[in-house]
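quick one before i forget lol
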Amino acid sequence: MRLAFVALLLTVTVVLAQQPTTTQTGVLRLRVRVKADDSSPLRGLARKRFFLIPGTLEQNRVFITAVEQQSLTTRDCYYQQHKASAELITWLKGGDCESVYCRSIEKEFVSGPKAVPEFASAFAASQKEFRDDETARHWLTTNLPPDVRDGFYRTRKAALDALLKQAGPTVYSVMTDRNGTAYFTDLGPGTYVLSNLVPTELDQTLVTWNCEVKVNPGDLATEKPYLVSNRKEKTVKCVGVEKPKPVCAVN
């Protein structure tokens, strides 16, 4: 009986020893709040993508330099270069949009005093095609020139894809919600660089974030958020570098 018990105990010990040890992961709760200028209130930065790159700033120095030195055309300059109307540029800025797909095109922007010329022309073409006003309005984007429809988004995505190829195989990515909150989950413990890679456009400035952040085993989303801003305040953990927007070249 004693031998049987000892054998059972040894078996249990071996099974427990063979079980893989699980590494605790962490969660980083991002909260991004910005000011367009000194007189504006802080607001959550909505629908913006942020990245976590394993390693310290020094370990990623070459890559971060490439991020900081990239030359990109701003949204206003891009659409001006493609002969977009002032009304369309205002409509895009109103929703902080990179393409016409980021918000609904309501009736007031198709006809009337707030009409966007590009939308009105595309709507007229869609009416002939669909013969129903509601359907024509919902599908008018198919009759916009590609450069106006989503060309700016495609150029930004190409720039982002090129940077990600340099960053290495393990890069985490999240997009902020309408309140400027996002969650990085299942993170291994260690040091990371938090970056937006492509500058974020505010009213008159471009903001780039590149900050070291430490993730500890067991860090939970219920803890205090990791605050990110373009203004240096006591609770802000990551302050962006802000530069004036370049002047658009005159065609």
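fyi Residues 124 and 136 are 8 Å apart (CA to CA).
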